[in-house]
């Protein structure tokens, strides 16, 4: 299996509880998908910091971008998560945002991408 | 650890249809204004797979500055930009000398009033992210055609005394063949298909020599001068191939040819 992208060892403890999700994407998108997932993981970290600071605009923007780009890269779930984050940020729903960020983190930790 | 060790792995496959590459001579020069780098990379990748040339700007002002010296066949415009909104970019373009530039909004804003506002302000089409690859390419090519910037690309183009056969790559003027080099032929076709349109030097270079070619301004000017002479694109013949300072060239068909003094060869 070539071009496998997956969770790091730090997430291994969650793997026994959560089923994996393997997505197979065309080879020509490999570099772009790798970059995209790195950026989105960074965005999640930024969103956590923003949530702690009550910076809802930053989370709204991160959600908006995720909504727009996720499906195009082959991850419609990420677009749905992005839409939810954007909506919750607009109404400043801190509890929902915390849950949604956890859901995105779990999704990314389950995710394995193969290229063919 | 691989997915094989996980419980009940769910596997899905993303299949993307391959777009048809642009037909020769129908390559579009596309500007993409998008601040999300991942999205911009994806759009550029799709456009290039379809045979088009993509130029990315991450700010609205960056594009507006570029338009002072560049021309494009079509613009893909995001709404939410860090400096000015996509709608403001749209308004400023519609009030500029590039007012007819076909514009496709690609944005995650999906409310009906957003779509209506963008179209009423002059957008040619509107797509809500996430967009699908083939649909994006098809809509983009459609608005470029409607904008008459990229015609149907007929094999034979007849204009005034000129007849251009793209199949045999020959040009006749008043039914007499005009000898042109390969590059001069491509340059002639570009101008004759874009009569009245101001083309930037970058646009001309990219269309004739390709996106990665290094072509000096002097080389370009030499080729333009040569086709002006060979095709007789001069006011006495009813044509003007005009240089526009620090921008590029425009081929104009004059309303009435300026009467010329008969030459011995005409008698």
Q: Could you characterize the architecture of this molecule?
A:
The complex is a heterodimer of chains A (116) and B (267). With 116 residues, chain A is mainly alpha-helical. Chain A is 64% helix and 9% strand. Chain A is built from five helices and two strands. Chain A has helices at residues 12-15, 30-53, 56-69, 76-90, 94-110; strands at residues 21-25, 111-115. Residues 1-16 of chain A have low confidence and may be disordered. Chain B is of the alpha/beta class. Chain B is built from eight helices and 13 strands. Chain B has helices at residues 37-49, 60-66, 86-94, 112-120, 133-146, 182-192, 201-209, 217-231; strands at 10-13, 29-33, 53-57, 74-77, 103-107, 125-128, 156-159, 162-165, 170-173, 176-178, 198-200, 239-244, 248-253. Chain B has a five-stranded parallel beta sheet with strand order 3-2-4-5-6, sandwiched between helices. A four-stranded antiparallel beta sheet of chain B has the order 7-8-9-10, covered by helices on one side. A three-stranded antiparallel beta sheet of chain B has the order 11-13-12. At the A-B interface, strand 1, helix 2 and helix 3 of A face strand 1 and helix 1 of B. Strand 1 of chain A pairs parallel with strand 1 of chain B, so a sheet runs across the interface.
In brief:
With 116 residues, chain A is mainly α. Chain A is built from five helices and two strands, in the order αβααααβ. In chain B, the strands form three sheets. In chain B, strands 3-2-4-5-6 form a five-stranded parallel beta sheet, with helices on both faces. Chain B has a four-stranded antiparallel beta sheet with strand order 7-8-9-10, covered by helices on one side.
């Amino acid at each position: 299996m070539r071009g496998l992208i997956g969770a790091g060892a730090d997430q291994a403890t969650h793997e026994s509880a959560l089923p994996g999700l393997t997505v197979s994407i065309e080879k020509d998108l490999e570099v772009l998908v790798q970059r995209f997932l790195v950026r989105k993981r960074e965005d999640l970290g930024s969103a956590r910091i923003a949530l702690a600071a009550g910076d809802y605009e930053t989370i709204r923007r991160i959600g908006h971008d995720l909504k727009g780009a996720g499906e195009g890269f082959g991850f419609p779930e990420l677009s749905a998560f992005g839409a939810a984050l954007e909506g919750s940020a607009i109404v400043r729903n801190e509890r929902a945002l915390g849950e949604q960020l956890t859901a995105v983190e779990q999704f990314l930790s389950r995710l394995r991408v193969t290229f063919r | 650890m691989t997915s094989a060790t996980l419980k009940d792995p769910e596997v899905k496959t993303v299949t993307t249809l391959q777009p048809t590459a642009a037909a020769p001579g129908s390559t579009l020069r596309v500007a993409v204004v998008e601040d999300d780098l991942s999205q911009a990379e994806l759009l550029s990748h799709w456009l290039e797979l379809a045979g088009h040339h993509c130029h990315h700007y991450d700010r609205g002002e960056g594009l507006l500055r570029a338009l002072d010296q560049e021309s494009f066949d079509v613009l893909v415009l995001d709404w939410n930009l860090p400096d000015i909104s996509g709608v403001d970019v749209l308004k400023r373009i519609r009030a500029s000398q590039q007012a007819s530039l076909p514009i496709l909004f690609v944005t995650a804003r999906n409310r009906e009033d957003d779509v209506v506002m963008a179209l009423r302000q002059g957008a040619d089409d509107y797509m809500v992210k996430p967009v699908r690859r083939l649909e994006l390419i098809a809509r983009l090519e459609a608005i470029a055609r409607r904008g008459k910037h990229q015609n149907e690309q007929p094999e034979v183009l007849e204009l005034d005394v000129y007849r251009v056969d793209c199949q045999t790559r020959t040009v006749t003027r008043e039914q007499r063949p005009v000898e042109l080099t390969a590059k001069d032929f491509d340059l002639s076709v570009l101008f004759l298909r874009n009569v009245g349109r101001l083309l930037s030097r970058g646009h001309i270079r990219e269309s004739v020599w390709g996106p990665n070619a290094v072509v000096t301004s002097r080389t370009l000017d030499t080729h333009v001068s040569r086709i002006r002479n060979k095709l007789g694109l001069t006011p006495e013949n009813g044509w003007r191939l005009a240089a526009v300072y620090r921008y590029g060239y425009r081929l104009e068909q004059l309303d009435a040819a300026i009467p010329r003094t008969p030459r011995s060869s005409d008698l």
